[in-house]
Design a protein that fits this description.
The protein is of the alpha+beta class. It has 2 domains: 170 residues, Penicillin-binding protein 2a (Domain 2), CATH 3.90.1310.10; 346 residues, 3-Layer(aba) Sandwich (Beta-lactamase). It is built from 20 helices and 21 strands. Strands 2, 3, 4, 5, 8, 16 and 17 form a 7-stranded mixed sheet that branches. The protein is elongated and about 145 Å long.
């Protein structure tokens, strides 16, 4: 009897203990899970919560402007809007994509792919909408199909002068990051530092007003002021366009430089492009060819040979018979012309290959190299543009005689157009080498030249060489460069183009570089035309372009004439014969 009464009580006790144990086990599991979630996993869940309830909004810094020397903006910013979305809020992605196509154009399929590709809370739909398109989107944002779509304020890079100096300014990509020219080289200075806003958002991703937020202010980019004068740049580009229409070249360059400061007033390239048109542009149209493309200068380089000969005091009298054997090679003057007895004036003005090569041979490789270094022709100029390239030249101890002779008349050596222009500027500036410049200021700070000036040749020798170069424009190969009432000095160049170690038949670079007024030079101008058709000589193709750029610059910059009674003008060939008849003199020839 007693055993029968105690059994249910014991069973009940055991069941109660089992239930209690199970309850405690469940509690222990829950506690463990809470410890796991709130302790070990706490950082991850906090991050998820922040992601859901907080948004980090980029506060873009204002990109610095690129200004011409007169303060005119060449690269500026205009207000724009970016179209974005929270894919988790967009209910019908296909319908939203089709609605966006109707409102702002573009591809519905691309919008759909963007909305479907991410599992996050943000995606770009379209960048840099103008005010008109943004207004159309804003009118439709309240529609259910546009839930999750948002407009964000941004800026768009604009180039008010269009293609003017496009290669120098460069352009930016869709993220406002520079990809060419000054925009690329000085991107860090222009871009500044973006700010950041952390704010709470609602389920649709909209910022909740009056909630706690953290903000880091953006640091705006610095403006760049450059040396280019828009008017002079326009003169140069218009003249290159005329040359392109007449001779259909592969490319053309024009550089205008201030003699005394070496500030580049114009740096024109043809063909060009419009940086506001974001279509695919061939890379060769984007290059600043005057900096990136070294070439054989041809006869224009005889100015250097003459300068080195004057500095070394060697005999500059040479007899030209039209050809000259050099080892196993024979060099010729243009058309096999024999110039006869030549002094330095005739060597330069008539562009005699034989005489220039003979001077180089008399100088020898070591002395030539010394002066190449002094004139900055084997080193980069340091101009503040990217991609500066210089021709490779072996050390003088490895030159053969034919190498030395060829360099004397501009073959077997390559320079870029800035180097060559600076050579003429050095002669014009009484032999003083200075670093070419394209930057004036970054922000409020003036940009100084990195390389100090130095005397590359004596003032007396520079003055003598300027007289020889003036004769080029009155008696020799550069008559087409002369402008009435101004003394002009310069040098023509016609260089064959080499490819794979051989010269390409019929392929030339025609160039002319010079300065004016020759009495007190103010500007240096270099024009170089690659592969012109129908003509090949620098005196025919490039010298007239020099003349017209110089003529316009003289009027615009109000440069006083230094020869008021000199009516000789390259536009009127007969003016030279009338001058000679009046003076009782005789003219030279134009072999280059």
């Amino acid at each position: 009897m007693v055993m029968l009464r105690r059994t249910p009580i014991l069973t009940l006790k055991r069941r109660t203990e089992a239930v209690l144990f199970g309850f405690m086990l469940v509690v222990a599991v829950l506690v463990a899970r809470l410890v796991w979630i709130q302790g070990i996993e706490s950082p991850r869940y906090r991050a998820l919560a922040r992601q859901m309830h907080q948004r980090e909004i980029l506060l873009p810094a204002r990109r610095g402007l690129i200004l011409a020397r007169d303060g005119q903006p060449l690269a500026a910013n205009v207000p724009a809007f970016d179209l974005t979305a929270n894919p988790r809020v967009v209910a019908d992605k296909r319908a939203t994509a089709e609605a966006l196509q109707q409102i702002v154009g573009g591809s519905a399929e691309e919008y759909y792919q963007r909305l479907s590709r991410t599992t996050g809370y943000f995606c770009w739909l379209r960048r840099a909408l103008d005010d008109a398109l943004a207004a159309q989107v804003r009118r439709r944002l309240a529609e259910p199909v546009m839930a999750g779509v948002e407009l964000r304020r941004s800026t768009r890079r604009r180039y008010p002068c269009g293609s003017l100096a496009a290669q120098v300014t460069g352009d930016v990509d869709i993220d406002n990051v520079g990809r060419d020219g000054l925009e690329f080289i000085h991107n860090r200075v222009l871009a500044g530092v973006d700010g950041l806003l952390r704010a709470e958002v609602d389920a649709a991703g909209r910022v909740i007003p009056d909630t706690e937020r953290q903000e880091r202010e953006p640091v705006d980019g610095q403006d760049l002021q450059i040396t280019l004068d828009p008017t002079v740049q326009q003169f140069a580009e218009a003249e290159l366009l005329r040359v392109a229409e007449q001779y259909q070249p592969e490319a053309a360059i024009a550089v205008v430089m201030d003699v005394h400061t070496r500030e580049v007033l114009a740096l024109a390239n043809w063909p060009t492009f419009d940086p506001d048109v974001r279509e695919k542009v061939p890379i060769e149209n984007r290059r600043v060819r005057a900096v990136t493309d070294p070439y054989e200068p041809g006869s224009a380089f005889k100015v250097f040979t003459a300068a080195a000969a004057l500095e070394e005091g060697i005999d500059t009298h040479v007899y030209c018979s039209g050809s000259k054997p050099v080892g196993h090679h024979v060099i010729h003057c243009a058309h096999g012309k024999a110039h006869g007895a030549c002094d330095l004036r005739r060597i330069v003005s008539l562009s005699c290959n034989i005489a220039a090569g003979t001077l180089a041979e008399r100088l020898g490789a070591v002395r030539l190299w010394k002066h190449l270094k002094a004139f900055g022709l084997v080193d980069k100029t340091g101009i503040e543009l990217g991609g500066e390239a210089i021709g490779w030249l072996a050390k003088p101890e490895n030159w053969r005689t034919i190498n030395t002779v060829n360099i004397g008349f501009g073959q077997g050596i390559a320079v870029n157009a800035i180097q060559l222009c600076n050579l003429f500027a050095t002669v014009a500036d009484d032999g003083m080498w200075r670093q070419p410049r394209v930057l004036l200021r970054a922000g409020n700070q003036e940009v100084a030249a990195q390389a100090p000036p130095h005397q590359a040749m004596s003032p007396a020798n520079a003055a003598l060489l300027r007289d020889c170069m003036e004769a080029t424009c009155t008696e020799g190969t550069g008559k087409s460069a002369k402008i009435a009432h101004y003394r002009v000095g310069g040098k023509t160049g016609t260089a064959q183009i080499a490819a794979h170690g051989i010269y390409v038949p019929g392929a030339y670079v025609a160039s002319f570089g010079g300065f004016f007024p020759a009495h007190r030079p103010h500007l240096v101008i270099l024009v170089s035309v690659r592969r012109p058709k129908g003509a090949q000589y620098g005196g025919v193709v490039a010298a007239p372009a020099f003349r017209e750029i110089a003529r316009q610059c003289a009027a615009y910059l109000q440069i006083p004439p230094d020869a008021p009674g000199d009516e000789r003008d390259g536009r009127d060939p007969g003016s030279f014969y009338r001058w000679q008849a009046h003076r009782g003199g005789s003219g030279g020839d134009s072999a280059d």
